[in-house]
Each structure stands twice: as structure tokens, then as C-alpha cells.
Write a structure and sequence with these properties.
heterodimer, A: 244 residues, alpha/beta, 6-stranded mixed beta sheet, 4-stranded antiparallel beta sheet, 10 strands, B: 419 residues, mainly alpha, 72% helix
Chain lengths: 244, 419
Amino acid sequence: MSNKIIELKNVNKWFGEFQVLKDISLSVNQKEKIVICGPSGSGKSTLIRCVNRLEEHQEGSIIVDGNELSDDTKNIEKIRAEVGMVFQQFNLFPHLSILDNCSLAPIWVKKLPKKQAEELAMQNLKRVQIDDQALKFPGQLSGGQQQRAAIARALCMEPKIMLFDEPTSALDPEMIKEVLDVMVDLAKGGMTMMVVTHEMGFAKEVADNMIFMDEGRIVEKAKTKEFFDNPKSDRTKLFLSQIL
Amino acid sequence: MKQIEKIIKPKNLNQNTLIFFGLALTLLSFLDVALLSVFDLDLLDLKGSISIFLPLIIGFIGLFYIRFDHTNYAFINKINKSINNDWFNSILTILVILGILKFTPILLNWFFFEATFVGEAKEDCTGNGACWVFINVWLERFIYGLYPNEEIWRLNTAFLLLIFTIISAFFVNQKIKKYIILFLLFVFPFIAIELISGDMAGLEPVASDEWGGLALTLIVSIFAIIFCFPLGVLLAMGRRSELPVIKYFSIGFIELWRGVPLITVLFMASNMFPIFLPEDVIMEKLLRCVIGIILFEAAYMAEVVRGGLQSLPKGQYEAAKSLGMGYWKMHVFIILPQALKLVIPGIANTFIALFKDTPLIFIVGLLEFLGMIELAKTNPKWLGLATEGYIFAAIVYFIFCFSMSRYSQKLEKRLSTER
């Protein structure tokens, strides 16, 4: 049990009148990789955004690495520093070089000395294979390079968990692979990952468990092989038949 | 129209001949006006109203003859394309060129050729042109106001120090430059004020009523700019805050100060404000005015900055938060650098407006640059020289405002990270 790093219990969330998350319960073990899929508007992005409290849930509890998410800002900042997030739109800081993008948070949040933070940044940039672009600005990089830089930026905080919110959806088809390769590599390195994606090939390759969401509910949660070979609910079957 | 065109500009005539003829006519019309206005020589020598319209008509016909879809001369093609593409534009062209030819000599005469530059008194100005003697004699007062003569070295020292520090900032590396800028913003103004007011040991105190002229303009605007900017940024952030107290305080503050004319603010600062202060607190009139200007301009600055904050995509906030940054770190490192860069034109606008608003402190009896000119032109010995004074003021204000504008454009370019 001590192995659980993320635990959601009966989480409900509304945007105004509209209920986006309905009674979500879910737990993620250390080093587990979970891929969440589902049609658009099913609440899958909202779900992982709740894990680092970019969205607030209204009912239920979310416990990340032993800390329950609440309105306490210091607590949230501490949790966010341990949970890396990669966005669909990359969200690199356009006014900073790639190196500064990566070293800023380690310097100011983790209080690393500048030199050490930059070494760390270079290591992670090397890991995603764009260390030669370190001094460029985000606007000068291709989409795939930007997304890899964004992954490196998150890794520089040495997070325990990585959240990916449709990391390849805004990319040109030929750039998707370079980003997925980095993510596969990361998964093999033993990172705990929650990934929202439509890349089923990636899911089959790395995911331990699959979650299918529709209309704010978890419709199906299963081991990856079982999920693809033998889905239980009709809704999942329909979705898989359309996407595969 | 087409019919007439065919008759007076036949197709079978050589194009070069027509162009030559047209150019000759156009030049003749220019020459006529130029000679008339420079040497008073009437080339075509016609009396009455026709002499005004004749050059116009000749020029119009001339331009008509050189108008072709295509010629062998690049120069003619360019004229045809940009300022002579139809009869209406050709009339405008002729009017503008003739206007310039007619009025430039008059202006030049007034400014330079018939103006008087040297002398001691108004009586030395004998020409028909401007009496720059007025500016010459009063220049020191315009710059230093009523500051005592024997202490002027202190103002000079302050400004030389300022200029020297600014220039030195261009020749050092980035790291030292940062400190120079911090020194300029947070240390220099206070040293300068100590020096100018004479609170420092061993100096003769000079009360702020004696300050004036361009020096006062600069003192007021530099202080107002330094303080209204951070205050404006804080107000802008406050207005977007999720904490109701801060939010509504900011909204109230901004709307209140934006809703009253500056002149009212200054009047209140000088006359009403002291009533509310405790007896033993005495604030100088100048200080009260500067605070008034700071609060007033901060409200404008806040709205400019808020525009920048709003135009940033939500993703920037989320990315910063997801890295564990708190509110202040997020704003200092991620949000403000981008937002402020976006609104540099608006910030420059506010600073320029602030600089040009400073003459309003005349309402409380402080005589800055324009106030001193105002004072000088009502001096019985120098009556009737308002034009010279105002033109001089316009030139000086323009130099300062234009420099600020250029600097802001440079800064915008330098900070741009897009390719």
C-alpha cells in the first residue's frame, strides 16, 4: 500500500453547472505508467490537471505523495515541484533561452546554485537530444524540439511523477515520433507517468494500465493487454474500433 | 474625358517629346513659385488672381503630359506610380510642392536669415525675423529657474553625474550594467535631491520654491517615472488578484485617479491636502505635487500593464505554476517580463504624456521649463516674444519626447526574441 503515489477518491468537479468529473477513484503506484484515453470532452485532461491542482476539484480527495491537495498554497507549490507536467501547447517561456527555460525553476524553486542548475539542464537537454539548441529561443525551434525542451524543463525539477496532457496533439505528424521516443525512453527509466494521449501504439508499448473515460466517468480500467485484446464495455469497443 | 485626352495628347506623337514638354512645363511652374517667393521675381509677370493659379494650371498640364503607363525612364515611372497616377493625385502633388516652395523660404527667413541671434535686449532685434536674443539672454533661467546663481554648480554636478553614468552604461558589460541601472533608479535620484536641496552637510539649503526651469521639469518627471512604474505594475496585478480586498482596492484606486483631471489632483495636493495632515507634519509643496503626479500616472500605467497581462496565454501561467513557482516568482520571472515587453509602446506613451503633463504644476506656483518661459515673456522688457518662447519650448519638449520614443523602439527591438 505504501507504494501508492497518487490516490484519487470519489473526486467530483463541476465547471459551473456542467459536471466534468463524476466520482473518479483511481490510484497510481510508483513507477506505474497509466495512459488515459477517451473522446474529447470526456474529462481526461481535467483529471490529470487536478493531480497538480491546475484545476481544483470540489468533492472527494486527491493525495499526491502523501500530501492531500488543499487550498494551502505552500503545500501545493511543494507538490507541483515534485510533479512534472508537459502541455499540449508546450508552453515554453518565449522570452528565455532553452537553457534558461530549464534552469530557471531549479534555481529559484529548488534553490540550486546557478552553475549546478545549468549542468542539470544540459544533462536533461542531452537526454532529449537537443543540447545543441540550448542557447536558442523557443521561437527558433521546431514543434517537436519545443516539446522535447518542455519535457527536459519538467525533468530538471527531478520530479517523482510526470503528467503528459496530449503531448503530441499539436505536432506535425513527422515530429510525433521524436517526442514519443523521448517518452518511451523516460518510461523505461522507471518514471511514474500519467499520459493523456491518442497514440495507441505508444500506449501498447509502455502502459501498465489503460483508462478509458467518457462523459466524466472512468468507463474502463484494465491492464493494457486486456484493454486492447478484450475490452469489456461496448463504449470502449466502439472507441477502439474508431481509433485503431 | 477620354476624348479630350486623345485630342490634346495624341497617341502618334513621340513619347519622349511629350515627356520633355511635360517636364519643362512642370519645372516652369515650380520655378515661377520659387523665384517669386525667394527673390520676389515674377517670372510670368501676370497681375491679379491669375498669377496665383497659373503655376497650378501649368504644373497640372505638365504632369498630365508625363503621365504614361510605361516609359523608358525609371524616374518618371516612379513619379507616375506614386504621386501622379490620376488627375486628382496630380493636383494634390502640385499643391503640396507649390505649398512647400512658397512657405519654406518664409519660414527660413523668419527662423534664420532675418532673425537676430546676438544682443542683450529686445531693442537689439531689428530684423523682421525671430528674436532669438530672448532665448539667449534667458536661457540660463529657462534651465535653472530661480535657483541661486552661485549654487548652480550643484545642479550641473547632478546632471553631469547623470549623463556620465548613462554614457558609462553603454561601455561596460551586462553584469556591471545591471548595477549601473539599479544605481540610476534607486540611488542616484536621492543623491541628486540631497545635492540640489542642500540637505547634505556644508551646503547652503535651497528651498524647493526656488527650483525651476528645465531642471525642475527633469526632477519632477524622473521621480514620477521611477515611482509610478512599479506602483502601476502592482496595481495592475492587484486588479487581477483573486483576493477581493486587494482587487477592489485596486479597481477603486485606478478608477478614482483616472477619473479626475490632473490639474484637480495638483490643486488638491497643494491646497486641500495640508488641511488633512496633522499640524506638525509639513510636506513641501513640490513633494506633494510629485506624489499627486505619481498616483495619477500610476493609474494609467496600471491599465497599460493590465493590457499586457491579459494578452499572455493562460499556458504561461500554468507552465510556471506546474514548475512549483509561487505567485511572486511566477510574475517576476515569467509573466511580467513578457507582459511588459508587449506593452512597451503603451509604457512609452504614458511616460511621454507624464513628461508633457509636468507644466501643469504651474497651477501651484512652481515654475518649471514652460513656466519660466511664461514668466519671461510677461517681463515688461521682453513683451511680445511669446512666439519665440513657445517655439523654443516646443523644440526642447520634442527633443526629449522623441528621444524617449526612439529609445522605447530600440528597447522593443532588442528584447524581441522572435525571429
